[in-house]
Amino acid sequence: MSRFGGFLRERFSLEEDKQDEADVIESIRRGIEFKGINLWTLIFAIFIASIGLNVNSTAVIIGAMLISPLMGPIMGIGLGIGINDLMMIQQALKNLSIAVFISLLTSTIYFLISPLHIAQSELLARTSPTVWDAFIAFFGGLAGIVAGSRRDKITNVVPGVAIATALMPPICTAGYGLASGNLYYFAGAFYLFLINSVCISLATFLIVRFLDYQQKEYPTPEVERRVRNTIWVAVLIVVVPSSYLGYQIVRKTIFEQNAKRFVANEFNFDNRQLVSYTARYNRHQSILELSLVGEPLQKDSINLLRAKLLPYGLADAQLVVKQGSFKDAEIDVDALKNTVTDQVIKYSQSSIARKDHIIDSLRRYIDLTQSAHISVPDLRNELKTLMPDVQTFTAAQSLVMNRNSTRPDTVMLVYARFSRKHTQAERQRIEKWLQSRTKSKRIKLLVE
Question: Which keywords appear in this protein's UniProt record, sorted alphabetically (predicted)?
Answer without folding.
Answer: Membrane, Transmembrane, Transmembrane helix
